[in-house]
Backbone:
């Protein structure tokens, strides 16, 4: 189970990396687009201006519309046609390259309302769809994207204050991952409850349980075989040869006529921590293992 949680935590780390990579792609596209268009130093909304705007929009992945202005109001746009952009008096935050950013900007498209992200630098404004924000993670877990503005962590999308709570350890019972990008001023946090972990990993947990049960059964059988072999007479004798479990008994030989001891017979005996073994048990094994011949000695 611990291994599955570690694997799930690694998956959350990958989700954080993927989310920050996508944000980095969007930020890079926005910066490159606005820097390039402003570097042209165009005047008025002539054919050259429109052509460059159209070409840039065609090459963009996330930008859905580009507007050009020389005064407070847009005088021409490409992409989203007949669009009225209503912006707040001040941006939600100022990003790198002095790009102003408005979140949840209502765009009037045809007969329905839709929100987008509006970014502005000098004479050009770009509209970015918010769809990518809804798909920053493939896991159904709580998450938050924040923007680092000096010493302030500004909420962008997701569960408000989640990053701060995870950072302060208030989700210690959950499985968490958080990271700040090294290249852009954005951070991402994701938190999954144990319940969601079990739900997401139910198949893996079931497979892990079956494998663990099979490993236990196989180990138990092997253990029984080992102990059975360990306790067998043959194993005892083989171990006894190495551990000097054999000892000698001396049986006197008496002459019947004189009733005097005229010699002795040496008898081999065996004793280990499990007790005595009869010569009838260990002699055949010694003959087999040590090749001491086929004739039995007197016991």
Residues:
């Amino acid at each position: 189970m611990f291994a599955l949680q570690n694997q799930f935590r690694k998956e959350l780390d990958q989700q954080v990396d993927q989310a920050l990579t996508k944000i980095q792609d969007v930020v890079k596209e926005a910066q490159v687009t606005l820097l390039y268009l402003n570097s042209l130093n165009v005047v008025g909304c002539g054919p050259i201006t429109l052509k460059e705007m159209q070409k840039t929009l065609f090459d963009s992945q996330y930008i859905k519309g580009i507007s050009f202005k020389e005064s407070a109001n847009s005088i021409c746009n490409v992409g989203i046609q007949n669009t009225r952009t209503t912006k707040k008096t001040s941006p939600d935050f100022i990003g790198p390259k002095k790009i102003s950013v408005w979140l949840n900007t209502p765009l009037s498209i045809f007969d329905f309302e839709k929100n987008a992200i509006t970014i502005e630098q000098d004479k050009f404004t770009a509209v970015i769809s918010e769809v990518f924000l809804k798909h920053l993670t493939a896991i159904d877990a709580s998450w938050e994207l924040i923007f680092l503005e000096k010493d302030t962590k500004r909420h962008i999308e997701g569960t408000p204050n989640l990053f701060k709570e995870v950072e302060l350890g208030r989700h210690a019972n959950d499985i968490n991952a958080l990271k700040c990008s090294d290249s852009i001023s954005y951070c991402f946090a994701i938190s999954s409850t144990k319940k969601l972990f079990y739900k997401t990993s139910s198949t893996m947990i079931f497979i892990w349980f079956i494998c663990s049960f099979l490993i236990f059964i196989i180990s138990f059988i092997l253990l029984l075989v080992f102990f059975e072999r360990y306790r067998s007479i043959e194993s005892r004798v083989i171990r006894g040869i190495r551990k000097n479990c054999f000892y000698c008994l001396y049986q006197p030989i008496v002459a019947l006529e004189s009733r005097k001891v005229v010699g002795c017979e040496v008898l081999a005996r065996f004793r280990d921590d499990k007790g005595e073994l009869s010569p009838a048990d260990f002699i055949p094994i010694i003959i087999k293992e040590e090749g001491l011949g086929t004739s039995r000695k007197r016991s």
Summary: Residues 186 and 235 are 68 Å apart (CA to CA).
